[in-house]
Amino acid sequence: MNKKLISITLSIMLVSLSLFSGCNTSNKTTSKGFSQEDVIYFIMTDRFYDGDTSNDKNVNKDDLKAYHGGDLKGITDKLDYIKSLGATAIWITPVAQNEDGGYHGYWINDFYKVDEHLGTMEDLKNLVKEAHKKGIKVMIDYVANHTGYKTPWLSDGKHENWFHPKKEITDFNDKNELENGWLAGLPDLNTENPEVKKYIIDNAVWWIDQTNIDGMRLDTVRHVPKDFWMDFSKTIKQKYPDFYLLGEVWDGNPSYLEEYHKAGIDGLLNYPMNFGIKDAISPTGSMFSLSNAIDRDSEFSQPYLNGIFIDNHDNKRFGNDFGESREEYLKLALTFIMTYPAIPVIYYGTEIGMEGGDDPDNRRDMEWEKTKDSKVLEYYKDLVKIRNENPALKSKDYKTLMCDYSTICYLRGSEKNRVIVAINSGNEESTVELKIDGDGEKFVNAFNKKDVYKVENGKLSLKVKPFESVILIEK
Ligand SMILES: [Ca+2]
Ligand SMILES: [Ca+2]
What we know:
Elements: H1 3-29, E1 40-43, H2 72-77, H3 79-84, E2 89-92, E3 96-98, E4 108-114, H4 121-133, E5 137-142, H5 175-180, H6 194-211, E6 215-218, H7 226-239, E7 244-247, H8 254-262, E8 267-268, H9 271-280, H10 287-296, E9 307-308, H11 326-338, E10 343-347, H12 375-389, E11 398-403, E12 407-414, E13 417-424, E14 430-435, E15 442-445, E16 452-454, E17 459-464, E18 468-474
Parallel strand pairs: 1-2, 1-10, 2-5, 5-6, 6-7, 7-8, 9-10
Antiparallel strand pairs: 3-4, 11-12, 12-13, 13-18, 14-17, 15-16, 15-18
């Protein structure tokens, strides 16, 4: 073979190699759906990071109800930070064009346009592309229940019968009012009208087609009939079988939430568990509230696909009223959601212990300074590392070992890959004796590797200090 031929052959090989690796990269970016191995980081885009000041219209950072300048480009800029939190996915607040003042995204007046304050369709596509390169999936928040207050559809004469008659919801237990009333006075879409139903479903599919997103968080699910969600999820899944739908049904009854899972929504934001956590991990709480919520998780057919969370944009930051001990309780609650078989959803800023009361105080700007020296963040990252190093914590196996007023202990995984988690939210040391199969097996404290425990005759004794979480790994 002469030199020229060798060089041509080499070039062909290099081209095919790069084509091949190009294919590989694009394969990697294809979503394989969601499971309890995922961690979702939830971002209110306007409040996260301003990556493009050219779209800063009507910004007033002194007003929590005004635009603050955060945008899609800003999220793209911060993907490495998001990745460092162990997040495998982000959920961002709605991206469609809102009427004036809709910094949060829930007042849509153009379903087919990216909101000008957040950036452009190109910015959104780029965010998805860059996130996928880093192994992070992207979910957008989607609103099918209502439009913004001042939608042109109310008066343009072309959308008759697109809305339910104007009526406030006064009784949230009345299904008719719940589904047809105007939530917070927002024009309520009449999804029983086939034209409206088709418009919304076509629009949802269009966003997926355009952007290559991996999932949607569905807003105000219980305010829209289940028949609609059946058609909505069926149509999306026909085209995108691995697409993940995470529904918001703000209710404490798992069986009620399960009805929406049966309507085709993969996972629900687990409000019943959220209430259990908040009622347990607090200065006046009882851990039995949490163990009851865990028992009731069996009312879900797929509890692992639910989002498990401690706070969000509609509720106070976790422990906001707890005073000085706030961060101690926060760490306990984070331990629980990062070690329970479901998908942890971390609200931006919770990982650094941001404070905030009711809406809009819980929507303050991300405090980037704090990411440099936050003790909560240090602890959260330890949790991520422990979760990533121990497959038991990403399994579906779960068993409560004991629970009393202040302490809960549970077992994750099986056989030689077992993990014990103990959480004491009381102000006194707790001594527990756990039933663990075996004799002579050793468990090491993940936070302090010198601390070793031994199973003796099917029992393991453990002391848990006040406000302490212990994670024991079988060695
Ligand atoms: Ca901006
Ligand atoms: Ca409705």
